Amino acid sequence: MKKKILSTFTIFIIVLSCFAFASAGSVAPTEKVRVIIGFKGASDAALVNAHGGEVTSQYQYVSAIAASLPPKAIVALQKNPNVAYVEPDFEVQAIGKPVKPTPSPTPTPTQSTPWGIAKINAPAVWDNGVEGLGIKVAVLDTGIDTNHADLSVAGGAYFVRTVRSYNDDNGHGTHCAGIIAAKDNAIGVVGVAPLVSLYAVKVLDRTGSGYLSWIMSGIEWSIANDMDVISMSFGSTGTVPAYETMINTAYGEGIVLVAAAGNSGSGTDTVNYPAKYSKVIAVGATDDKDVIAYFSSTGPSLSVVAPGVAIRSTYKGNSYATMSGTSMACPHAAGTVALMLSKNNELTPLQVKEALQNTAVKIGSTPNNVYGYGE
Ligand code: CA
Fold this sequence. Notes:
By secondary structure, the chain is of the alpha/beta class. It has helices at residues 2-22, 45-50, 71-78, 115-119, 122-126, 172-181, 212-224, 241-252, 326-343, 349-359, and strands at residues 33-39, 54-58, 64-69, 83-88, 91-94, 97-98, 136-141, 153-158, 197-202, 209-211, 229-232, 234-235, 256-260, 280-286, 304-307, 311-315, 319-324. The protein has a seven-stranded parallel beta sheet, with helices on both faces. Strands 2-3-1-4 form a four-stranded antiparallel beta sheet. A three-stranded antiparallel beta sheet has the order 10-5-12.
């Protein structure tokens, strides 16, 4: 893994060098580059500033800083004895796509139960009075439509630099939120755990992508605001050490982390980060026949599979849409976790992960790289 990070970084440096060469002679100042700087001891914003860097985030829970740096400062900082690494702050993508070209503009007049909600037997759990009440779920995504008639948003935060609210300007986040907790009322759809407290943590922009540094800020916010569950329907093939440290810190604080396995398809190990981390519940996608979706990532870190093909849920603009992706499977699992916690909030993240895996309906020999411990 280290070798891979180094080679990625080498390419990054080469690209930077080309850029610097191409812009030589131009009057425009050399463009700064987004990086995440890891420190061996306490993080040092003054050091970054002294190298001409602009600090965008100084994290509380990990010794790291996100900054924009002049390219020549990268090598200088890497030589500093207090600096562990300087890595690119790359963009991470949402991993669900609409299967219909446009969302339906008008809510369906009567509530219907989407197939995935029925498949995981959520209504039977509600009949026992367990609907997620008192559990706080942070949806790290493109935001949530705060005016949707079928959703209730308890709060949130935004870390996308170009916006001033956690309202959803993409649709993906509202779709994931509805899978977790669309209201059990007379309209639209119903989610897995309709009474959870939903928090919109906007870390992805209107195009569905966001910098790793924004996602780390979203996890930090979730720790500081006592979230019980973090649902992450995004992924990347690369990572930086501070990302895992932040995730491990959240886990250590008792937060259950759930992530989409990725839409990279089958292979020896195609699971994306953060799902690939051992402390995260990695969720693959199945269809209504319990067959793995062609796009669902596979590998030894896969925990479980959940419905993720042709899923109807809420969408931005007080509407509804049908989408597919492991992005849709992740909130089915996150909602299930919320139900488990609302029944017994003493469960640790490890106990939740094990219980989820142990109660999954096994598909083939388990665990396996395609279905994990099952559905
Ligand atoms: Ca509803």
